[in-house]
Amino acid sequence: MNLEAKLDWNDGFLTGQDRLIVAAAALAADDRWQAVVTTLQERGEASLDATAWIEPRGQAPLTLPRNTFRLQPGPQPGRFYPRLAFPPLARSPRDLKPVRALGVDEKTITVDPNHPLADLPVTLTLSPTALECAPAMNLADLFDGPGLQRPMHGELRLAMTDLARDNESGDSLFYTQPRFTHHLDAACRAQIAGLYARFLQPGMRVLDLMASWDSHLPDTAEALHVAGLGLNAAELDANPRLAERVVKDLNERPELPWSNGQFEVVFCTASIEYLIHPQRIVAEVRRLLAPEGVFVVAFSDRWFPPKAIRIWTQMHPFERVGLVAALLAQAGFTGLHGETLRGLQRPGNDKYRAQRAFSDPLFAVWGRTPRA
């Protein structure tokens, strides 16, 4: 039996749900969990006390000399860093437990050493799942990342250096040749389709933003009017789900060519990391959405390195969820939700199976436009 371990939490800004697929044998490592197996068999769901994993907690902020910071670029307030970046804090040379930089000046850095979820009530539940588990996944892995998506509340500020890319050539030139290849493995793509299905009803007008030859829509989604905007005409032409096709470089012209309120759902799949004007584009998406429309952004931990904005490459994968949530909040989206899924087994016929036994993790953020 495989299990889905699920953390649920809410910090008043973002509702978070973090899921990990583990084998039931992972519970055999601790006698305290044997009762959980019985509860699962009897009720189909069981709860665990997450406190033991959400630590440290209750520690006061620490002020450290700035010259002890060991990573490049320099520390930024609000960002999370592994404790190995601060030798006075690190318990080993490979200590990856996160701390948040609360304040930075010329001489000092003030950090919060507590687990990112230490100040919140967290619910941990287990339930059986038919999903295949990757090997060597442990229940403790569930707590490696959750909470890092909590952005610092306040105005989001992105510097030009944050939005720079290693390859600054025109994207239209870079994507001249079509790429008829999947950038995520089949297990991850199936989960994205399942996620998108939650928001779809027959007759909806949907925009696939930064589209390609696959819109990652579920096969059960029918009677939709799907528009796609992407960089390569051949890829868009090969996408059978699209009723409208627009070729446009949003990094060159960050406007969307539709009038206000034209869509009920906008999806952006594995692409937001390439936008050099993300704030303007997210504001444009809100303009296009009808009242109570939803914008869903899904991504993994793989991308074209030369074309991703620099801040994306410097962040922990969970921290990127917080960046996207902050972009949506700044544009006026409400009901912000972040969701993650890890631990799926990579399909046996996947060409990268020898390099990576686990499926590409899924990270998603969504929010809604206010009611009229």
Considering the chains and any ligands shown, give keywords for the structure.
372 residues; alpha/beta; Thrombin, subunit H; Rossmann fold; 3 domains; eleven-stranded mixed sheet; four-stranded antiparallel sheet; 8 helices; globular
Structural class per helix/strand content?
A: alpha/beta
Number of helices: 8
Distance between the termini: 47 Å
Based on CA inertia axes, which overall geometry fits? Answer: globular
From the 3D structure, determine the CATH topology of the largest domain: Rossmann fold
Count of distinct strands: 15
Compute the CA-based radius of gyration.
Answer: 21 Å
CATH class of the largest domain: Alpha Beta
CATH superfamily of the largest domain: Vaccinia Virus protein VP39
Catalogue the unreliable spans.
none
Strand content: 25-35%
> From the coordinates shown, what is the CATH architecture of the largest domain?
3-Layer(aba) Sandwich
Q: How would you write the strand order of the largest sheet?
A: 3-8-1-2-14-15-13-12-9-10-11
Q: Helical content, roughly? A: 10-25%
Task: Give, in order, the helices and strands.
Answer: EEHEEEEEEHHHEEHEEHEHHEE
Main β sheet profile: 11 strands, mixed
Mean pLDDT: 93
Total individual domains: 3
